[in-house]
C-alpha cells in the first residue's frame, strides 16, 4: 500500500482542557485514520507556552507512530503554515450563570485574527472546525476574514449536542446508541438549538412512536439545550473530554465521510429550509468525504419544528449584528 504524505494539523488553545483530551486522540489516528501520519502544531498565547511545553513532552512520551513532527508556537504565521486541518479551540469558556453568547465580545477578535492568518498561510484545502464559543458566530467571523478559502471549509461544532441527544434517547428507550439514526440538531450551539426527533429512527422504527410528546417537549429538548450548563454546574468548568470526543468525530466524518449517516454540524446557510445565506447554522448533514458534505434535502418541517428553528436563526442573526464590524 502506498504511504500517505504527512499532513499538518493545528490545534489552538493547546494548553487548555479540551486540547488535553484532544491532542493524544489526533496523534493516535482516531481523527484522520490509523494510516495517516501527522505533524501536530500546538498554538496558544505567549502566557500559556510554558504549559504547552509540558503538553509537548507528554506527546513525545506517548511515542505515537503516526506523529512525524511537533511544533509549539504562539506565532500564527508559523502555526498555520501549510496546515490542512485546523481546530480552533482556544477561547475563553463561560462560567456559571453565563450564556455562550456573553463570550462574544471577548472571543470574537481571536477569530478575526485567526481567520486572516488562515487565509494567508493555510493550504487551500484546509478544513477548519470552530469549537471556541460562541462557535457558530466565531466560525462566521473566521471564514469571513479568510480570503482565498471557501466558507464551506469552515464549520462549527454541534456534534456534542448531537451526541448528547442520542445518549438521552438511547437511555430512554433502553437501546444502544448505534440503534438510532436520522437525528439532527438545527440552529445555534446555544440554549435555542433545536434537537429534532421528527425523523429519528430506532432500529428502523420512528422514535416519535415510542416516546411521549410531553417527554420530548418538557424533558428531552430542555435537557439537551441545557446540558453544557449542567456540566459547568457539576464540574465547575465546562465540558472537556466530551467536547474533544465530538471534535474528533466531527473532523473524522468531515474528512473520511459519514457512510450515509446523518450528523449535525454548523455550516454556512445556503437558503435550504428558508434559512437565508449569511449565518453558520446546524443542519442534518451527510458527509461525503474529503471535506465535502450535503445538507439533507426535502424534509417536511412541521409548525412546532419551524418555530424552534426560527428562534435559533433569529438569535444567530442577532449575534451576527453584534459583530458586524469584524465581518468582511
Ligand atoms: P480552557 O480555558 O481550558 O483553555 C482555553 C485555552 O485557549 C487556554 O490555554 C488559553 O490560553 C487559550 N487561548 C486563549 N486565547 C487564545 C488565542 N488567541 N489563541 C490561541 N489560544 C488561546 O478552555 P477549554 O475548556 O479548552 O474551552 C475552549 C473553548 O471551547 C471555550 O470557548 C469553550 O466555551 C468552548 N467549548 C465549545 C464546545 C462546543 O460544543 N462547541 C464544547 C466545549 C467547550
Ligand atoms: C458545552 O456545550 O459543553 C460547551 O459549549 C461549553 C458551554 O459553555 O456550555
UniProtKB/TrEMBL annotation:
InterPro entries, alphabetized: L-lactate/malate_DH (IPR001557), Lactate/malate_DH_C (IPR022383), Lactate/malate_DH_N (IPR001236), Lactate_DH/Glyco_Ohase_4_C (IPR015955), Malate_DH_AS (IPR001252), Malate_DH_type2 (IPR010945), NAD(P)-bd_dom_sf (IPR036291)
Catalytic activity: (S)-malate + NAD(+) = oxaloacetate + NADH + H(+)
Pfam families, alphabetized: Ldh_1_C, Ldh_1_N
An example molecular function term from Gene Ontology annotations: L-malate dehydrogenase (NAD+) activity
Entry binding sites for substrate: 94, 100, 133, 164
Keyword Zinc: no
Enzyme Commission code: 1.1.1.37
Any GO BP: malate metabolic process
Chain ranges of the Lactate/malate dehydrogenase N-terminal domain: 7-152
Keyword tags: NAD, Oxidoreductase, Tricarboxylic acid cycle
Domain of life: Eukaryota
Limits of the Lactate/malate dehydrogenase C-terminal domain: 158-322
Enzyme class per UniProt: oxidoreductase
SUPFAM superfamilies xref list: LDH C-terminal domain-like, NAD(P)-binding Rossmann-fold domains
Positions that bind NAD(+): 44, 107, 131-133
Active-site residues, Swiss-Prot/TrEMBL: 189 (proton acceptor)
Keyword Cytoplasm belongs to the record: no
PANTHER family assigned to the protein according to its UniProt record, in alphabetical order: MALATE DEHYDROGENASE
Record-stated family: Belongs to the LDH/MDH superfamily. MDH type 2 family.
Name of this chain's protein: Malate dehydrogenase
Source species of the chain: Naegleria gruberi
